[in-house]
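PROTOCOL LOG
Step 1. Enter all chains and additional molecules of the complex.
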Amino acid sequence: MTPTEAPTRDAYAAPAAPPLPVKMVIAGGFGVGKTTTVGSISEIEPLTTEASITEVAAGVDDLTHTPGKTTTTVAMDFGCVTIDPTLKLYLFGTPGQERFGFMWDDLVEGAVGALVIVDTRRLDDCFAAVDYFEHRGIPFAVAVNAFDGRVEHPLDEVRWALDVSEGVPLVVFDARERGSVRDALLTVLELALSRTGG
Amino acid sequence: MPDGTPSPGEAARASAVRPFLVTSGRVADGGSGRALPVETQVVTTSGGLDALDGLSFERHDIVAACRLPQSLAELAARLRLHLNVVRVLAEDLREAGQLAVHVPDAAITHDASVLRRVIAGLRAIPDSRKVPSDSD
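Step 2. Run joint prediction.
Step 3. Record the structure below.
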């Protein structure tokens, strides 16, 4: 909490312009490897911030019957990669919650794309994220985290089970491997780029 | 959002209590779609540096920390403040001319030329192995 020692004014006479922040979202179920993924490529140890999600009662479809929304504080992990002094990539892990709140809109707003991490032993955990990004029209790829280098199910079975379209890239990666995480992120970015027509 | 920035004295007392007391109960409503994006860059202005000694607690810490540009999320994490508290205080400090708040323009960040630069930058990152440290 203590601010660092004040440098001289001269050092800040011409404050550096902040970089342009480009945001990607790392989503998936609890314990699927989101923080590991961020940590494998982030230039800083993943940071955690507390944020609020506003959620409606689970299982209630008609909002008019919901007397009130609940605000819950959740932890959100993130990291970053400086591309150059004018450009910085931010990776935000979605809070590891099964339920969906407005926090996701808050977090995802402006993101160039998302990586949805899947553990094939618990496919159900990623359905909410897949649905969310499909409905929001946000470019995303599904990345199967190969725990111990193994994937329990063939990719075409995973694709069938997730019911994602052919346009959604499906890759296998290792959240602990920087190069593997890099390539999974590139898959998303290239998809986003293709959507710009570029 | 009700108006009324607390005086420095109020903020000083509030800082020891509940997080949203420092914002006079105001919250950045993430559901409205108008909250500052988490990656919004904030940087101290020369006015902020001039005012630094007169600022108290959270406001002081924010203006001091933002001598180095950073995102709202980094700021919240490093100062151990709730993200929405930082959002509200950043807006206050901007209005006071003490903080420059650079809200990213999605039309720019989504531009093909920017995406190509991010892609090129990521491709330049070498492989390496890190120790597993799953905690999410």
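Step 4. Note key features.
Residues 44 and 67 of chain B are 5 Å apart (CA to CA).
The first strand of chain B starts at residue 41 and ends at 44.
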